[in-house]
Write a structure and sequence with these properties.
With 175 residues, this protein is of the alpha+beta class. It is 19% helix and 42% strand. The protein has three helices and eleven strands, in the order βαββββαββαββββ. Strands 1, 2, 3, 4, 5, 6, 7, 8, 9, 10 and 11 form an eleven-stranded antiparallel beta sheet that branches. β9 and β10 form a beta hairpin. GO terms for molecular function: coenzyme F420 binding; oxidoreductase activity, acting on the CH-CH group of donors. This is Pyridoxamine 5'-phosphate oxidase N-terminal domain-containing protein. It comes from Nocardia aurantia.
């Protein structure tokens, strides 16, 4: 695997928080959380602007090799934010109160420029999201000849919020 693209070495460590969970509930297994990450098309990306204000935007993401991958135009605010501070949060889940699993991923966005990895990701964007990207020298190109920067976010911490029953679990990763 290219640098920056290795798979997780081990399962994350789960810490169930009974203070914010229903009595007699249990944490979701990591496999259920991973399924949410792999099956979700849309996420909310939270970054920080240069002046410290938050910036939140919806964005499609692809789960591949234990990382979330996103693509953003090279002129977009989120691209500028990630260039200045790669720390970010990606959030997904359901918009219902009593069902589903909401997942929050904290990590750092690392730019992917390796042509082989970009080619794999372009195939995944097509098969999973029906988005066509061509692979340029170090980024995606779209039909409008715009540059799409590709980033991988390896989870440092994942929070999983179950809603039936209500649970809160923290997953941490050693790298």
């Amino acid at each position: 695997m290219p640098a920056g693209e290795s798979a997780l070495a081990a399962e994350p460590i789960a810490s169930f928080d009974a203070r914010f969970s229903e009595p007699d509930s249990a944490p979701p297994p990591w496999s259920a959380v991973r399924d949410v990450l792999a099956g979700s098309e849309m996420f909310w990306l939270s970054t920080v602007r240069a002046d410290g204000r938050p910036h939140v935007t919806p964005i499609p993401a692809i789960w591949h090799r234990d990382r979330l991958h996103i693509c953003t135009g090279d002129q977009e605010q989120k691209a500028r934010n990630l260039a200045a501070d790669p720390r970010c949060v990606l959030t997904t889940g359901t918009n219902t109160l009593r069902a589903g699993l909401d997942v929050v991923v904290e990590g750092e966005a690392v730019r992917i420029t390796d042509r082989d990895t970009l080619t794999q990701l372009a195939r995944l964007w097509k098969s999973e999201l029906d988005w066509d990207f061509e692979v340029g020298d170090d980024a995606f190109r779209d039909g409008g000849n715009r540059t799409g920067l590709v980033f991988a976010v390896a989870p440092r911490k994942v929070l999983a919020f179950g809603k039936n029953p209500y649970t809160q679990t923290r997953f941490t990763f050693s790298r």
